[in-house]
Amino acid sequence: MKLERYQGNPILAPAPGSWWESTVTTNPAAYYDEKSGEILMLYRAAGNDVFHKIHFGLAKSTDGYNFEKVSSEPVFSPSGNGYDSGCVEDPRIVKIGRHFYITYASRFFPPGEYWLGDKARYKYPKCPEHFPKYMRENSSISSLVITEDFKSFVRAGVLTDLSIDDRDVIIFPEKVNGKYVMLHRPSQWCGNGYGTQWPAIWISMADDLFSFRRSKLLMKAEYEWELKIGGSTPPIKTKYGWFALYHAVGPDNHYRLGAFLLDLNDPSKVLYRTPDWLIEPQEDYELDGYYKGCIFPCGTVVLDDQLFVYYGGADKYVALATCCFSELLEHLLSCPAQMVV
Questions:
Q1: C-alpha span between 158 and 103 (Å, rounded)
Q2: DSSP 8-state assignment for residue 331
Q3: DSSP code of residue 309
Q4: pLDDT the model gives residue 340
């Protein structure tokens, strides 16, 4: 079972001359808004500045293939004086009630042009030793922003431990047994005592969105195409379980995609998981960019049993791959997961 690339890829590309998206348009979140009949896409964007400050742009589509940007300006940008003052990256969208809840990764300082290497890239200022670790090391933290209309936003706060580099944070679109559920990928939680050699996917449950204090290892690398893995897309509730995609960085440093199903009543149980990848980097827009060999989705949409997977290609473009959703679920049901030990 493989995902099929859209012939019109890439569906979004950098806009020459733009101060904020002339270099990068990538890693898109997506949500189908039944009220408007539109697919909303929130994508990561950056201009041609040495700091590589990163923003979010918004685009909309009525057919899932053709997207129109809503503005010549970003809809959400770094705060300028807070935990996300350097960049906002890799959004994931869920809707609870009338509000959209968007998780995203950020840094205190802009990351600089990371593809140039440490010696050539911009160096963020050195902080005094008594400053928080995430500021001193400019490590990733993950936060939550809430909006009703994608015009005004409330920066609700940080979701993860400030002492570790933690990305790929995804919250479930509804409570499970009265608890909020969060997936995340803490980079330092590997090695002796963690049950995984490489950074992996962890799950946490809490009474509210800012009380995730205890986590359990959910999934780790199991197959030859996997080393570091992380959650990619917000879960979709099906009769078989919670469906989602995940990404894996392999021995060749390429990002590939897999899928899994979690138990509906106990999402800490992985029921099914694809043993082989669904798509790997092959096209120019996946191989020729700022990360050569990267497929990175942050959102999926299901329309008329068609799964639309919106992904970043090579940290530069937005692309689309599709498949029959019921066929993918049927394939998954033939792939019982190994237990995490």
A1: 9
A2: H
A3: E
A4: 61
C-alpha span between 247 and 229 (Å, rounded): 6
Spatial CB neighbours of 238, under 8 Å, sequence gap ≥ 6: 261, 329
Pick the closest to residue 58 from 80, 74, 81, 46 (CA basis): 74
Q: Work out the mean pLDDT of the chain and round it to a whole number.
A: 96
Q: What's the pLDDT at 35?
A: 87
pLDDT at 32: 97
The CB density around residue 153, as the number of other CB atoms within 10 Å, is 17
Rounded to whole angstroms, how far apart are CA atoms 292 and 181? 33
For 154-200, the DSSP string reads EEEEE-S-TTS-EEEEEE-SS-BTTBEEEEEEETT--BTTTTBSS--
| 3-class DSSP assignment, residue 112 | coil
Q: How many CA atoms lie within 13 A of 41 on its CB side?
A: 33
**What is the pLDDT, as a whole number, of residue 282?**
98
Alpha carbons 145 and 124: distance in angstroms, whole number = 25
**Nearest-CA neighbor of 77 among 48, 42, 35?**
42
- What stretches in the chain show pLDDT beneath 50? none
Cβ atoms of 79 and 55 closer than 8 Å: no
Provide the H-helix boundaries in 73-170: 133-136
- pTM score, whole prediction: 0.97
| DSSP states of 18-65 | -TTTSSEEEEEEEEEETTTTEEEEEEEEE-S-TT--EEEEEEEESSSS
For residues 160 and 184, the answer to whether their CB atoms sit within 8 Å is yes
Look up residue 44 and give its two tokens.
């990561």
Q: How far apart are the first and last CA of the chain?
A: 27
CA 272 → CA 104, 179, 244, 336, distances in Å?
27, 23, 11, 4
